[in-house]
Specification:
- The protein has 3 domains: about 290 residues, Ribonuclease Z/Hydroxyacylglutathione hydrolase-like (Metallo-beta-lactamase, Chain A, 4-Layer Sandwich); about 150 residues, 3-Layer(aba) Sandwich (Rossmann fold), CATH 3.40.50; about 90 residues, Ubiquitin-like (UB roll) (Roll), CATH 3.10.20.580.
- Helices cover about 35% and strands about 20% of the residues.
- Strands 7-6-5-3-2-1-19-20 form an 8-stranded mixed beta sheet. It has a 6-stranded mixed beta sheet with strand order 8-9-10-11-12-18. Strands 14-15-13-16-17 form a 5-stranded parallel beta sheet, sandwiched between helices.
- It starts with a helix and ends with a strand.
- The protein binds zinc ion (2 copies).
- One zinc ion binds next to helix 7.
């Protein structure tokens, strides 16, 4: 009885952190109150808001049409008949999307992305989902299905693939990006079982059958998934928008979505990112028109900053470039990755001569050049930021240049972006950014597109996904406004175990899903390592430790020297240094008693780790720690 085990192991330890205590849910679903609530055609919103955190159970007891159908007894006999859906990431956050779907002894995973740390975690370390639920159900895992190739959906695969060798299915560009990622030095993953699929393909995995449905998004080859299970169809929207005039691949397959809706969908989990925005997203094609206008006016060089993964945007830049007889050079380390993957699949239509190497730019006049660059979010190490601050090795921004920021600010990035924009203006560039012109469209459905999806899919149960809490909540409201009863809408947290059995749905427990922080020494690229060091230095300063060791005796000579800069106030430094010295001497004593060479033990990083823990404990800061050993 796997279901019961999970409940028992998950519940007690995590009860505190979860506001929606499952105990109350269980009671509610067994109790009689659904019928009284069911009677209300419009549950009032205030009520819902107030029950939100404390007793979500009140409005979710199963929605069973036959309240007499008490689940308690049947649960015992139908242990294998339970469908579970467990988000291990992506709930109440935008990032590290990963969902487990389980039925009996079979389990599949949808997406496996990275997230970025909360503000209180230093540096730009990344966060991956907690895989412990997978390891305790290892034998059940049949396959991984990917909705598209964005980092928040595929970025954690290197860690997953290290532990599990299961088939991974995704559309062509998605799999190409995964392949490149896994081939990177440092991941150590060999022979991953990758399977590129096409729109419309249906894949069997254990009891599941997964159909890939074409949708639109800000990367090519995005899919929604119709997951057929013995309990019914689970529809996973992936990240999507509806674009009737996309650049590549055709409009989202609304006809197929409608057919699946007509078959009857048990449960839908859907993208909530843009639920706050009313109306419809503009078509990606709109941006192309803006590019054409801007390119017609530009007299000097043109720089376009955008996300390297948005190949539609790249395509439209190439189209405008060729329209005006210019050449393109790509700037920024990450820029070629997705471009090359997409180009190898023939997704980018261009004359091969249009793309030139950045070393060739001197052969061309200013009005013949376009640069596509990273840095649309003001990232400190990006090509655009470096050019803006005259730190780029090859290119400087000069009067007459046009710089187009073809992106919108990810919330929280406004400050660095405007810092870069100010700097570009100072250098005499003509800067065009979103608030001035239609140079970006979103890849996530707005309200009216979400309504269309709900109307086509008509799920019995609904779980808003891919959003912060307010997005999920607003999406729940939207579904409810279209007739979904409150008790059939589940606002999950990461790790909540949604269970469906015998016509009843509930949150049956939870598992670890707090996210695992990976420090930059893992599989990050060099840029992010440098940036992390910079941020560490800026935020928490540096502590340098110098230790002289007698090469004959292996003992410390004199007192270790410590220097702290930008770390804590002078007045506190002395006390902290004394404690650090004590720690160093303890470390040396331990090495001596264990008959181990001190210098080697220090260079293993063990001393640095101990000092870091000590300093964090005393000061709540994590300065960069440099330990130098001089053997005399
Ligand atoms: Zn995406
Ligand atoms: Zn996403």
């Amino acid at each position: 009885m796997p279901s019961k085990q999970n409940n028992q192991s998950g519940q007690p330890t995590h009860n505190k952190s979860h506001p929606s205590a499952p105990a109350s849910v269980a009671k509610a679903s067994a109790g009689g109150n659904p019928s009284s609530r069911r009677g209300k055609s419009k549950p009032n919103a205030g009520n819902v808001a107030s029950t939100q955190s404390k007793q979500t159970g009140n409005r979710r007891p199963s929605g069973q049409r036959k309240p007499a159908n008490n689940p308690n007894k049947q649960q015992e006999s139908a242990g294998n008949g339970m469908l579970k859906l467990i988000p291990l990431g992506g709930m109440r956050e935008i990032g590290k999307n990963m969902t487990v779907i389980e039925y009996g002894n079979d389990m599949i995973v949808v997406d496996c992305g990275i997230g970025f740390p909360e503000e209180d975690m230093p540096g730009i370390d990344i966060v991956i989902p907690d895989f412990s639920y997978l390891s305790s159900n290892k034998h059940k895992l049949k396959a991984v299905f990917l909705t598209h190739g964005h980092e928040d959906h595929i970025g954690a695969l290197p860690w997953l693939c290290k532990e599990y060798n299961v088939p991974i299915y995704g559309n062509k560009l998605t799999i190409e990006l995964v392949r490149n990622k896994l081939n990177d030095r440092g991941t150590g993953v060999k022979n991953a079982d990758l399977h590129p699929i096409s729109d419309g393909d249906r894949i069997d995995a254990g009891v599941f059958n997964v159909e890939f449905i074409h949708t639109n998004h800000s990367i090519a080859d995005a899919n929604a998934l119709a997951i057929r299970t013995p309990a019914g169809i689970v529809f996973h929207s992936g990240d999507f928008k509806i674009d009737y005039t996309p650049i590549h691949g055709g409009p989202a397959d609304l006809a197929r979505i409608a057919q699946i809706g007509a078959e009857g969908v048990l449960l839908m989990i859907a993208d909530s990112t843009n639920v706050e925005r009313s109306g419809y997203t503009s078509s990606e094609r709109k941006v192309g028109e803006t590019f054409a206008d801007l390119f017609a006016k530009a007299e000097g060089r043109i720089f376009v900053a955008t996300f390297s993964s948005n190949i539609f945007r790249l395509q439209q830049i190439f189209t405008a470039v060729e329209m005006y007889g210019r050449k393109v050079a790509l700037l920024g380390r990450s820029m070629p990755n997705v471009f090359n993957a997409a180009n190898s699949l023939g997704y980018i239509k261009m004359d091969p001569d249009t793309l030139i190497d950045v070393n060739q730019i001197d052969k061309y006049d200013a009005d013949e050049l376009v640069f596509i660059t990273t840095g649309s979010q003001g990232e400190p190490m990006s090509a655009l930021t470096r050019m803006a601050f005259s730190e780029h090795r090859k290119i400087e921004i000069i009067p007459g240049d046009t710089v187009i920021l073809s992106s919108s600010a990810i919330p929280g990035n406004e400050k660095p972006i405007y810092r870069v924009i100010n700097e570009l203006f100072k250098r005499g560039a003509h800067v065009i950014y979103e608030s001035l012109s239609e140079i970006h469209v979103s890849g996530h459905a707005y309200k009216e597109e979400l309504k269309l999806l709900h109307q086509l899919v008509k799920p019995k149960y609904f779980i808003p996904g891919h959003g912060e809490y307010r997005h999920l909540y607003k999406h729940a409201e939207l579904a409810n406004s279209m007739g979904a009863p409150w008790e059939n809408i589940f606002l999950l947290n990461n790790g909540d175990i949604f269970e469906y059995q015998n016509g009843n749905a509930r949150i049956g427990g939870f598992t670890n899903a707090a996210g695992i922080l990976i420090d930059g020494s893992g599989m990050g690229d060099v840029d992010s390592l440098v940036l992390r060091d910079r941020l560490l230095l800026a935020d928490d300063g540096i502590v340098a430790v110098f230790i002289a060791i007698d090469s004959k005796t292996g003992e410390i000579i004199g007192q270790p020297d410590l220097q702290a800069k930008g770390f804590i106030y002078e007045s506190e430094v002395e006390k902290t240094i004394v404690e650090c010295r004590r720690k160093i001497n303890q470390f040396a004593a331990k090495a001596a008693s264990g008959n181990k060479p001190l210098a080697a033990m220090i260079s293993s990083g063990a001393l640095r780790d101990q000092l870091r823990d000590l300093l964090f404990e005393r000061t709540r800061r994590r300065p960069m720690i440099l330990v130098s050993v001089i053997e005399i």
